[in-house]
Amino acid sequence: MNNHFTRTLVTTALPYANGPVHLGHLAGVYLPADIYVRFKRLQGENIIHIGGSDEHGVPITITADRESISPRDVVDRYHHRNLEAFAKCGISFDHYGRTSSQLHFRTAQEFFREINGKDILVKKKERHFFDPETKRFLSDRYVTGTCPICSNPEANGDQCEQCGTHLSPRELINPRSKLSNRVPELRETLHWYFPLGRFQGELENYVNGHSGDWRTNVLNYTRTWFKQGLTDRAITRDLHWGIPVPAQGDEAKGKVLYVWFDAVLGYISFTREWAEKQGSPDLWRKYWQSPDCRIIHFIGKDNVVFHTIMFPAILLAWNEGRKNDVYSLADNVPASEFMNFEGRKFSKSRNYAVYLGEFLEKFPADTLRYTIAMNYPENKDSDFSWADFQNRTNGELADTLGNFIKRSIDFTNAKFDGEIPYECTEDDWATLGIDWAGSFDKLEQAYGQFHFRDAAALTMQIARSANRFLTDSEPWKMLKTDREAAARTIALSVNLCYTLAVICYPVIPHTANRIYTMLGFQESFDDMVKSGKVRWDMASFPQLHKGHKLLKRSEILFRKIEDGDIAPELEKIERILAGIRRAEDDGTREEMHFKPEISSDDFFKVDLRVATVTGCEKVAKADKLLKLRLKVGSENRQVLAGIAQSYSPEFVIGKNVILVANLAEKKIKGELSQGMVLAVEGNDGRFNLVEVNGSEIDGKIIQ
Ligand SMILES: [Zn+2]
Questions:
Q1: CA angle at 299 for the pair 297 and 300, rounded to the nearest 5°
Q2: How far is the CA of 148 from the centre of ligand 1 (A)?
Q3: Are 298 and 11 in contact (CB under 8 A)?
Q4: In angstroms, what is the span from residue 70 Cα to ligand 1's centroid?
């Protein structure tokens, strides 16, 4: 880890402007980033937080098609909704941009031109799925079909939501176009590829240089890719929504930059927009092109390789052969694990989620921020549950922190006319029995190394100590016998309120602000942090002197959450879960009718062999049949199979299938069939081939 940085740039993964942000996103990316940024601001560091909406990509055009509105309408809607929810939650971006902005188009096209101009990109003609009805090439998300891994009949062409496997459209069984529901055809089209392999050596050096300070999950995900060997990745798509490919001639017509190439560059465009807003258009270079700046990408674990391999590779390609305008690579990529919801994965498609905007209409932001910080999925998946949310809000925020602050301030207002009645010395402070030096060391380490759960827990521990100090000192009793001692106790308590406001600010900033108001400060906490009037190191010794006047009004910081408040939420989950269970049952609860028993001798009469499909064509006047040429060891066979509704012929070639090799020959529709291949009937009545994994295994016996 370098310590020579004078500036920090924090970026957060760009949420797709195709749906509302949910609590899982908040827990993995935005809240940890905000906590980190607020902590560093308190320490007086030069730090900016850059985020924004990812407004390209196929899910957006799919939503637009479905709702018969334009993609622009879709992104406008979710950009504003998410921005509003983030603001309400206190996620303090310095700039929140949009990848549909002109400056971003320019930036992304500049990168393409620079890299293409150096002949780094590779042009390839490839066959892609094409919808014959709508006459459009189908990007991966426009193709749906059955997952080859878990048989989910509605897997997307890029990923199966049920089992999480990354797929390519041609791996799907029964591929269908989402536009017309037709079986797509394969057609030739030209695309630009980024040769990741060319940068593998440099990337490995870069990642190995961080083996001491990056999270294990980040190193492991990345190294798995290195082990497999980096290959060419397409960076263009046949699509009408996105950034046009800036290449000459007809070949770029109708093509846009693929969203993985475009979106990560948004971090740079948005920093440029921020710099323009500061009235200093070149200021962004001090963050992206200076060794003095530490760059940190906050992301979820599903985005690791985009930030440790692909984005750095783009920057290396830009830097190649350059002496000026050289980009720096990220210093850290703290990727989180996932936060589940009541023990299950969030699922947007099943509506099994709590959306940030909706949540904040019912409950205050800080109760959510605190509960999530205490469950931050740092190195393993964690869980958000309503019961935990209720317990933490009531027991920790209300009964401990809130109770202490209110008692201290009310007592001062009632018995000392809202004025600090005693000048606390460092010696008085030491008698509190709190190990300040040790605690601050631990807190600084926790924040600096992204251990936000530890930081929140340590903060609550200090609040507990403060609460105990006030309870045990009993100033309300002392007041009658020893007013000076009571004054000392209450002065210490109110100073502890100040300290708690500072140290809880990164996690619960709204609360810090409210405590400050009650303590008699008129300026907002955020402004005081910005102007340096309040700093982290001020929290470790008394700041409020004898005679300091409080607001003389107090408020309840945290209202307790009653069972009745969360009952509707629990009922809602039950309804959704019941629906999911019904859907799952419908798929499985079919009564099983087995055929009459046979002996093992009977079974072994059947000769099952692995066969490789070497050729395939349609059969004239038979719309369900495909004619397969099979290689079975040294023999070749021709077999007819009723799978034409599931596969285009070219899709079957190369598959390893299971052949019933000793079945009597017969003629079907005038064609000879020498055996039978095994297939499974799907819920839709179409047949999918049973496949065997492995290479050069044709002819092997299956038993
Ligand atoms: Zn699957």
A1: 160
A2: 7
A3: yes
A4: 31
How many A from CA of 167 to the centre of ligand 1?
Answer: 9
Q: How far apart are CA 164 and CA 300, in angstroms?
A: 14
Asked if 294 and 331 count as a contact pair (C-beta separation under 8 A), the reply is yes
Quote the tokens at residue 49: 């937080």
As given in the structure block, the two tokens for residue 162 are: 């049920």
Identify which of 480, 326, 463, 490 has the alpha carbon closest to the alpha carbon of residue 407.
490
- 578 alpha carbon – ligand 1 mean position (Å): 22
CA of 159 to the centre of ligand 1 (A): 8
Three-state DSSP at 121 gives coil
Number of neighbouring beta carbons within 10 Å of residue 39: 23
What is the amino acid identity at position 88?
K
Distance CA 319, CA 328 (A): 9
Taking alpha carbons only, the member of 636, 610, 639 closest to residue 627 is 639
- Mapped onto helix, strand or coil, the DSSP state of residue 246 is coil
Are the C-beta atoms of 94 and 272 separated by less than 8 Å? Answer: no
Which CATH class, in words, describes the domain spanning 1-123+193-382? alpha beta
Say how many Å lie between the CA of residue 347 and the centre of ligand 1. 14
395 or 248, greater pLDDT = 395
How many C-beta atoms lie closer than 10 Å to residue 478's C-beta?
17
What is the CA(441)–ligand 1 centre distance, in A?
Answer: 46
* pLDDT for residue 586: 66
Buried b (16+ CB within 10 A) or exposed e, 420-455: bbbebeeebbeebebeeeebbebbeebbebbbbbbb
Find the 580 Cα to ligand 1 centroid distance in Å: 16
3-state secondary structure 63-103: HHHHHCCCHHHHHHHHHHHHHHHHHHHCCCCCEEEECCCHH
In degrees, rounded to 5, the angle at the alpha carbon of residue 268 between the alpha carbons of residues 262 and 271 is: 140
CA 151 to centroid of ligand 1, rounded, Å: 6
Torsions phi, psi for 463 (to 5 deg): -65, -40
**What are the pLDDT digits (tens) for 541-590?**
999 999 999 999 999 999 999 999 999 999 999 998 888 888 777 655 54
- Measured between alpha carbons, how far is 267 from 288 in angstroms, rounded to an integer? 10
Mean pLDDT of the chain: 93
Distance in angstroms (rounded) separating the CA atoms of residues 93 and 73 = 24
**Whether 106 contacts 61, CB under 8 Å:** no
User: 629 and 615 in contact (C-beta within 8 Å)?
Assistant: yes
CA distances for 395 relative to 80, 306, 371, 508, angstroms: 35, 41, 12, 16
What is the residue extent of each domain of the chain? 1-123+193-382, 385-540, 601-689
Structure tokens belonging to residue 655: 């598959």
Question: Tokens 């100040």 correspond to what residue?
Answer: 498
Cα(547)–Cα(569) distance, integer angstroms: 48
Which CATH superfamily groups domain 385-540?
Isoleucyl-tRNA Synthetase; Domain 1 (1.10.730.10)
CA Rg value for the chain: 31
Q: Given a cut of 60, is residue 2 above it in pLDDT?
A: no
The 143-146 sheet, strands edge to edge: 155-156, 143-146, 173-177
Closest CA to 295 of 257, 329, 345: 329
Question: For the structural domain made of 601-689, what CATH number should be given?
Answer: 2.40.50.140
How distant, in Å, are the alpha carbons of 135, 142, 334 from that of 59?
Answer: 19, 8, 26
Q: What is the DSSP letter of 301?
A: G
Task: Characterize the bridge pairing of strands 46-53 and 7-12.
Answer: parallel
**pTM, entire model:** 0.81
Q: pLDDT tens across 112-160, in order?
A: 999 999 999 999 998 899 999 988 899 888 899 999 988 999 999 988 8
> What secondary structure does DSSP assign to 272-283, as a single string?
HHHHHHTT-TTT
